[in-house]
Amino acid sequence: MDYFLTEEQKMIRDLAREIAQDKIKPVAAKHDETGEFPWDTMKILADAGFFGLYIEEKYGGAGCGIFELVLATEELSRACGGIAVCYAGSALGTFPILLYGSEEQKQRYLPPLARGEKLAAFGLTEANAGSDAIAIETTAVRDGDSYILNGTKQWITNGGEAEIYTTVAMTDRSKGGRGASAFILEKGMEGFDFGKEENKMGIRATATRELVFQDCRVPKENLLGREGLGFVVAMKTLDQARPGVGAQAVGIAQGALDEALRYAHSRVQFGKPISSFQGVQFMLADMATQIEAARALVYAVSRMIDFGSKRFSKESAMAKLMASDVAMKVTTDAVQIFGGYGYMKDYPVEKMMRDAKITQIYEGTNQIQRSVIAGNLIKELAGA
Ligand code: COS
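Above: the input record for the complex with coenzyme a persulfide. Below: its predicted structure, written as tokens.
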């Protein structure tokens, strides 16, 4: 389908596709097997300018937007959903600074992130605060010119590998959601350590780790926005980031369709390629149609954000919800088309199915996305 990309957008997409096919696809299975963080690929993406795509030029970025980030994330995910999320997860960690950082914070933190010299990570989730993000127990207590953070963040993408961490802690629990505040932390700060590294079903190339704060002293200059704004920072960050999960899902699904189509065309049973059987053809047709519909929604929402829409929580949740459900369905069908071979690690589709699953869970489960969508529909009805 023609999305009328500009010449610059075509260039970004084509370069991402080239890197994905030439540099990522050949190492995807190795990273899936070992869980080794793909620093070599991050360096290639950094050299090609991908980390600065959505960052303003004055901070060393390319001055493009969410749409370009989405184009890149989709193409990288087509080759490996795990390696792609090391890249996209850095954008998630950077968004709070872009959205709420002071001029000073932006000047300090954005240039090395734009150059890809440093990766970022976003720390919200805790053991007892997943979907119920307001229930976070990490505290930040003001002490002179600093805040003292105590608590543990869980399942943090790029944890341990990133240098810059945007995180949320309670500064006044009695105020509920309005008592949370967001901070920028740096690896190496005293009292900031890393805990358990997770052994995951999919996206195994990326690090998923605990962040442990024990009397971690953070200068007050590292507060994002103002005290009490933390929950809004987190929610706005997720609104901005969810189309990226949608793009990851579309990419994984497209990768699975590419494989299934090629396999169906070459696999002969009953004397004919299985692609000549209507049962398989209908599956391929549905897979392609669902992917295109998801892609169209992800692109439309990304463009809506870049064109300056003020409210896009609902649409952002829709893009993530639809694309991730499509990715799960399409990758499952790809395994089915491969039959017994699809279940074997010698073929790439079982990994794609494992990688797809997380897109229905992280950055808010799809049940939470439905709550966000319905909540907004009801608000719109009430004219709020
Ligand atoms: N933008 C700005 N503000 C928002 C917002 C948004 N998208 N969504 C909620 N808020 C504000 C609300 O306006 C409300 O503010 P006040 O307290 O000032 O009125 C506050 O945040 C609380 O909102 P709400 O009452 O809707 O909170 P709930 O606890 O009922 O639910 C959900 C919030 C479920 C939407 C939220 O917790 C969520 O998204 N959970 C999933 C978290 C997630 O994605 N985790 C993944 C880990 S991060 S990778």
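Notes for the reader.
Residues 231-379 form a domain with the Butyryl-CoA Dehydrogenase, subunit A; domain 3 fold (CATH 1.20.140.10).
The beta strands are 120-123, 139-143, 146-157, 164-170, 180-186, 192-197, 208-219, 223-224, 268-269, 272-273.
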